[in-house]
Design brief:
The chain is of the alpha/beta class. The chain has helices spanning 54-61, 89-95, 113-123, 130-142, 148-151, 161-173, 194-208, 219-225, 243-248, 253-260, 269-279; strands spanning 7-17, 26-37, 43-47, 69-74, 77-78, 96-99, 179-183, 211-216, 228-233, 236-241. It has a single domain, classed as P-loop containing nucleotide triphosphate hydrolases (Rossmann fold), CATH 3.40.50. The protein contains 11 helices and 10 strands.
């Protein structure tokens, strides 16, 4: 383990061809992004509208998309590049795990949900077989307020969206990662459950030492949960800093636009976030 930052991105860019292989048009989805996550567990929120480049950036961190420019390093080691130089595939999958937007698309309707939990434990070398995987799966489910008895043998259609997203978080925890990349993880969840999900991130950071990159268009939940906020628009980072600094004195017009889009009812929205923190139903302690 390196003593330096957990993750570094240096001058990272991604350009896509527009209209197919032989098309001349190009779209610069991400441009010259430099960003780092500290060694200590933290939550960094990347905030921007659809098309801002935040999801493309997340997919590059997850090694699903190759950068066109720049470098991404995990513990000082390259994430991309020649196979001999970069982090081993299995080790990378253990260290970095994803949580995607739509929990209903993460599972087949033809297989029980616990199948995916057990296969993750076995495929990533956390257990030799299903019997030895049971305590690993049980521990991960316990971290999100569920148990194997609730999940075993049941199919996707037997769960709510909130439960499925909690199961997705548990699945990501099975290999004991150092970093989870969560791409719009609450946008498909009922509004009443969104704060419950993001609260799990802070609890997991504290209890399991996991860092998060939280991708969202919602500045209010980002401010509630994150240690640091990064604002992206048109493929570039235009502002970053601690939540209190960003909301108290935004320096970019786009950040001010995001703040203006947050509903207010007779109170400043940071005060409303604090009220939610105190009164959140179903909060685990």
């Amino acid at each position: 383990m390196s003593a330096g930052p957990l993750l570094t991105m240096e001058s990272v860019g991604k350009t896509f061809r527009r209209g197919g292989l032989f098309a001349r048009g190009r779209v610069e989805a991400v441009r010259d992004v430099t960003l780092s996550l500290p060694a200590e567990p933290s939550i960094v929120a990347i905030v921007g509208e659809s098309g801002s480049g935040k999801t493309t950036l997340a997919r590059m961190v997850l090694r699903l998309v190759e950068p066109s420019a720049g470098t991404i390093r995990l513990d000082g080691r390259p994430v991309h590049g020649p196979r001999r130089a970069r982090i081993d595939d299995l080790e990378f999958r253990r260290l970095v795990q994803p949580i995607f937007q739509n929990p209903f698309e993460a599972y087949s309707i033809h297989l029980p949900v616990d199948f995916y939990l057990f296969r993750t434990a076995i495929n990533l070398g956390m257990a030799a077989d299903e019997a030895s995987a049971e305590p690993v799966v049980e521990e991960a489910l316990g971290s999100v307020g569920l148990g194997l008895a609730r999940v075993r043998g049941k199919y996707v259609q037997q769960f709510s969206g909130g439960e499925l997203q909690r199961i997705a978080i548990a699945r990501a925890l099975i290999p004991r990662p150092r970093l989870i990349v969560a791409d719009e993880p609450v946008s498909m969840v009922d509004a009443s459950l969104r704060m419950t999900i993001v609260n799990l991130f802070t609890e997991i950071r504290a209890s399991r030492g996991v860092s998060f990159i939280y991708i969202t268009h919602d500045l209010s939940t980002a401010t509630y949960v994150a240690d640091r906020i990064v604002i992206m628009t048109r493929g570039e980072i235009v502002e970053e800093g601690p939540p209190a600094a960003i909301t108290a004195n935004p320096s970019h017009d786009y950040t001010r636009l995001l703040m203006d889009s947050i509903p207010r009812i007779g109170a400043r929205w940071p005060e409303l976030a604090e009220l939610d923190r105190q009164e959140l139903p179903g909060r685990t302690t």
